[in-house]
Amino acid sequence: MAPYRVGDVQVLTEDMKEFNRAMSSLRVSVEWLFGDVANSFKFIDFKKNLKLRLSAVGKFYVVAALMRNILTCLYGNTTSKYFHIDPPTIDSYLGVHN
Prior knowledge:
- It comes from Paramuricea clavata (Red gorgonian).
- One of its GO terms (molecular function) is metal ion binding.
- Keywords: Metal-binding.
- Residues 9-69 form the DDE Tnp4 domain.
- With 98 residues, this protein is an all-alpha fold.
- It has one domain (14-94).
- It contains four helices and no strands.
- Helix 1 crosses helix 2.
- The model has no long low-confidence stretch (mean pLDDT 84).
């Protein structure tokens, strides 16, 4: 999802501007999550290490994201702190029922 831009429409309405403001903080938090994965697992840096069709890029990223989410369950992350929410427990995240 992209922000509304002049050029896509003639004039940005107040609703469009408010939507852009609201989505901006969410977009930044999503970027933090991608950064968390890349910083936690350096091998996942696509531009430097992974080549499409020569390695299982998608599978590597899914495993790295899963591992990063488990670390988030243990230690939190920038996004959980920003939104003042506690991450789930590992059991809850993995769907383990006692």
